[in-house]
């Protein structure tokens, strides 16, 4: 943070200057702080650390001069770390944000918004955005819909750029990221479209989701504060595949963009993937996003098999992590 800060200084200064004095005042104040790095909102894929236009960045470099301008860097890592670390008094607010996100998903994945053979994939994404507006919440990660269908040729349909109508027998996963009082969460939930003669999802869906949830909870003791990310990865890799799951992706909650979170668990093969830029030690109170996936060789459903995944958040502690919300073990149903 430079050399000009005292222990009890505020997070930022609010300075009123005229437009004529802006350049000189900014240059003087930054030079006085002499920071080793200057974070600017420039990011191709992280919405909360983007927004600085090319024109404004060029102006800023000119005003600061070559010595300070070369210290400029994207603010993404700082923003991610800030959003993933919380004080104990903040955790209930994050928990409320998580509850609202899961509540939104439960509302969207219901007969209030889904009608078999009448609701499309794009309709579902639109409904998630509309419900978020109705609840007064900001969407920070756009809704994504993953659809699996028995004996289908969905990939050909998608590659043609066509929308897809949902139909009975479909298994659908919807994920969205929301902001509530400055706290950001991202969750995903499953829904199954019942056939006329069905009262529950197929047994392999029920068994698969329960197995992934069990494996997710079994991984929590390994996420202990003070352990390096790579050390944690090695411990988790050793236990992977003992239950139902075969892939796990971990990242900071502040890492809101996909960056491989779901595509990684949707790809066959055992792996534990870390979405950290380096190998930091996990910190008490740090919030971790967890995506755990399982591939099932259900050839009667799809030749390539099917996949199930859970997208959850957990709080790191000295004895392991604790899930913020209970994992989904049974899909929602549409009859």
Give the radius of gyration.
23 Å
Mean pLDDT, nearest integer? 82
> Could you give the count of β-strands?
11
Distance between the termini: 57 Å
Strand order of the largest sheet: 7-6-8-9-10
> How much helical structure, as a percent, in the residues?
25-40%
Shape: globular
Biggest β-sheet: count, sense, barrel?
5 strands, mixed
Tell me the structural class.
alpha/beta
Task: State which percent range the strand residues make up.
Answer: 15-25%
Work out the helix count.
10
- List the helices and strands in order: HEHHEHHHEHEEHHEHEEEEE
Low-pLDDT stretches are none
Summarize the structure.
32% of the residues lie in helices and 23% in strands. It has 335 residues and is α/β, with parallel strands linked by helices.
Overview of this structure, please?
With 335 residues, the protein is α/β, with parallel strands linked by helices. It contains 10 helices and 11 strands. A 5-stranded mixed β-sheet has the order 7-6-8-9-10. A 4-stranded mixed β-sheet has the order 3-4-5-11. Strand 4 and strand 5 form a beta hairpin. Helix 5 crosses helix 6. The N and C termini lie far apart (57 Å). 33% of the residues are buried. The model has no long low-confidence stretch (mean pLDDT 82).
């Amino acid at each position: 943070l430079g050399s000009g800060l005292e222990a009890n200084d505020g997070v930022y200064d609010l300075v009123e200057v005229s437009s004529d004095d802006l350049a000189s005042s900014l240059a003087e104040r930054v030079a006085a702080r002499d920071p080793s790095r200057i974070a600017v909102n420039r990011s191709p894929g992280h919405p909360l650390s983007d927004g600085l236009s090319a024109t404004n960045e060029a102006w800023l470099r000119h005003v600061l001069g070559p010595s300070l301008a070369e210290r400029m860097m994207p603010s993404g890592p700082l923003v991610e770390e800030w959003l993933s670390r919380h004080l104990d008094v903040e955790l209930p607010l994050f928990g409320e944000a998580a509850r609202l996100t899961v509540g939104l998903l439960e509302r969207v994945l219901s007969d209030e918004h889904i009608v078999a053979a009448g609701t499309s994939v794009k309709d579902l994404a639109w409904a998630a955005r509309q419900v978020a507006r109705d609840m007064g919440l900001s969407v920070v990660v756009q809704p994504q819909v993953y659809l699996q269908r028995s004996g289908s040729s969905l990939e050909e349909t998608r590659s043609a750029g066509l929308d897809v109508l949902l139909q009975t027998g479909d298994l659908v996963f919807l994920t969205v990221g929301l902001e509530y009082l400055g706290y950001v969460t991202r969750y995903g939930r499953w829904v199954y479209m019942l056939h006329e003669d069905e009262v529950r999802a197929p047994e392999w869906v029920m068994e698969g989701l329960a197995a992934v949830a069990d494996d997710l909870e079994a991984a929590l003791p390994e996420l202990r504060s003070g352990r390096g990310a790579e050390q944690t990865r090695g411990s988790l890799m050793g236990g992977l595949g003992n239950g139902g799951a075969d892939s796990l992706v971990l990242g900071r909650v502040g890492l809101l963009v996909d960056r491989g979170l779901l595509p990684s668990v949707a790809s066959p093969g055992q792996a534990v993937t870390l979405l950290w830029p380096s190998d930091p030690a996990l910190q008490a109170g740090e919030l971790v996003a967890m995506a755990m996936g399982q591939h099932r060789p259900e050839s009667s459903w799809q030749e390539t098999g099917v996949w199930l995944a859970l997208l959850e958040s957990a709080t790191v502690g000295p004895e392991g992590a604790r899930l913020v919300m209970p994992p989904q073990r049974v899909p929602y149903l549409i009859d």
